[in-house]
Specification:
Elements lengths: L4 E6 L5 E3 L19 H10 L8 E5 L4 E5 L3 E6 L2 E7 L2 E4 L6 E3 L4 E7 L4 E6 L1 E3 L29 E7 L17 E6 L8 H9 L2 E7 L3 E5 L14 E2 L4 E3 L7 E3 L6 E2 L3 E5 L4 H5 L6 E6 L2 H20 L2
Parallel strand pairs: 13-21
Antiparallel strand pairs: 1-4, 1-12, 2-3, 3-10, 4-9, 5-8, 5-10, 6-7, 6-9, 11-12, 13-20, 14-15, 14-21, 15-18, 16-19, 17-18, 17-20
């Protein structure tokens, strides 16, 4: 029997294992998946001294309540998250981007995210998980990945294969910022839409609907008119692409998106804005801003440089 493990007392909302995702499987209908907010995923692992590609626990809105049994370990939570550690009838208020110690019978209560969607829990060790196509990322729509492709459930035990010897109490001074103007490159079907439809897309506000998950984000707002055809022959999709179905309301494809789709594509959210996009909650108002390919590439290089700079500070 494994002597180091977590028991799930409350599962939280959409709590899964995630890592960097899986590459080059679009041809068999398997998307990348992986952590929704890649920067916060990487920072969580780095804070506890892990290799940056190890699986972590991703949760949405409300996180899990966990009871730990075993040797002393460190944990770190990234994002904008309220959490506490319960130890000997005392409560320790958690701080994101700061390492905390867990001992035997301590409880970790991840209460909620704060005006955001996703948070990440990393522990100073490796979870005992099965890899599928070189990744533990869980896609619950397709039942792919760790935990048999399912969300974590009450009563489950999560075993640790080993614990890191690196137990330094690190922290990072970092604050997540919000985004309202999402930069997009014109899509391959941009000219399917009327001039008025294009003007609406770039000038009007849209509201994120409640019909959003790891697969896609539905928007509500002024209808975007299609002058050619509201359905096309199914084509390949990528993360961040914006489809417009017959009702004129855009849908942004996210990490667990289907690999093909038959709705015209008006644009693609640039990769540099993706982490902030996925953290926007239902009811948030957003606007789209046109960006050319050259600028998008430069902005992504800057995003990667900023991320590596943050990692180097830990």
């Amino acid at each position: 029997m494994n002597k180091n493990f977590f028991k799930i007392l409350r599962a939280g909302v959409n709590t899964t294992f995630q890592d960097l995702g899986r590459d080059n499987l679009y041809h068999i209908g398997i998307p990348f998946s992986g952590a929704m907010d890649n920067r916060n995923y990487l920072l969580a692992n780095k804070l506890v001294g892990n290799k940056t590609e190890l699986p972590v626990i991703e949760f949405a809105y409300q996180g899990p309540l966990l009871e730990y049994s075993g040797e002393r370990i460190n944990i770190a939570i990234t994002g904008d998250v309220n959490f506490i550690i319960k130890r000997n009838n005392k409560e320790i208020k958690g701080v994101c981007y700061q390492v905390f110690e867990l001992g035997n019978e301590d409880k970790l209560d991840i209460i909620s995210t704060n005006k955001s969607v996703y948070g990440y829990l990393a522990v100073s060790g490796e979870f005992d998980l099965k890899y599928q196509w070189s990744s533990c990322s869980t896609n619950t729509k397709a039942n792919i990945g760790a935990n048999e492709g399912k969300k974590l459930e009450v009563g489950q035990k999560m075993n640790l294969l080993k614990i890191n010897e690196n137990l330094n109490m690190k922290k990072l001074d970092y604050v997540n910022t919000r985004i309202e103007n999402l930069r997009v490159i014109k899509g391959t079907n941009f000219d399917y839409f009327s001039e008025q439809g294009k003007k609406i897309f770039f000038e009007k506000e849209f509201i994120i609907s409640k019909l959003s998950d790891r697969m896609g984000m539905r928007l509500e707002g002024p209808k975007i008119e299609n002058k050619v055809d509201t359905n096309i022959k199914s084509e390949g999709l990528i993360k961040g692409v914006i489809q417009v179905p017959a009702d004129g309301n855009p849908i942004i494809m996210l990490s667990d998106h289907g690999t093909i789709g038959g709705y015209p594509k008006i644009g693609v959210v640039i990769s540099a804005d993706y982490d902030k996009l996925v953290q926007l909650t239902p009811g948030t108002k957003i606007k789209f801003k046109e960006c050319d390919l050259s600028s998008a590439e430069s902005l992504f290089k800057l995003y990667e440089l900023e991320t590596q700079n943050l990692i180097s500070q830990i």
